[in-house]
Amino acid sequence: AAWCEEWWIQTITNSTEYTQNLEKNEKELESLKNSELSSIDAFEISKKYNVPLHPKYTYFYHDASITEINNLKKWLYTSDLNFNNIEKIENDIVLDIKPGKRILEILGVEHIVEANKVVINRGNAHALLNTLPKPLEYEKDLLSLDAINIVSPVKIMAKAPTYLGGRVGRPEKTKERTMKPAPQALFPIGT
Asked: How far is it, in rounded angstroms, from Cα 154 to Cα 52?
């Protein structure tokens, strides 16, 4: 199953930190269900309840290689943003178009292109920079998601661990197919 908000809410309600102060936490959880969650709040809640990061700020890390994610991290740090305090990013990140844009597309990170520059809003920038505080380690059998969970301050779930695909064509335009010799189940024809 895909990592979604309903599943995230269930992990909070099942956490031991949530059940310790049930009455106060139920009110907080109701407000979470009905409000837009910022990246900063998502990280705070994940740390408070010891649960994975909110699905809105979880990307398709399992679709990219460790090398691609490390290249993305280097590319993000080429912006003119002040990286002394990545906990409190106040501005959008503006970057030159480089191979990093393709990695953003693979990960499913929202961004826009303006005047030949890639602009990542501060919420997504905060999520990326705080999920990747240091470069990922290369190990033989280590998947990219496992490598991220080693360096990330909060657990990161697989956004879509399985994919379903189907071929979509135009059946009204297809020609009739005839089999030669014509199949015959009752009385087989041929040798």
From this structure: 6
Q: What is the largest CA-CA distance in the chain?
A: 81
Tokens standing for 155? 């657990």
Which neighbouring-strand residues pair with 117? 96, 114
d(CA 72, CA 135): 10
**How would you classify the pairing of strands 93-96 and 117-120?**
antiparallel
Q: Compute the distance between CA of residue 106 and CA of residue 63 in angstroms, rounded to an integer.
A: 7
Q: How far apart are CA 189 and CA 191, in angstroms?
A: 7
Q: How far lies 85's CA from each of 13, 82, 90, 129, in Å?
A: 31, 7, 10, 10
CA proximity to 72, closest of 143, 120, 38: 120
pTM: 0.79
Per-residue pLDDT tens over the stretch 71-110: 999 998 887 766 666 666 777 888 888 778 999 999 999 9
Strands 117-120 and 112-114: antiparallel
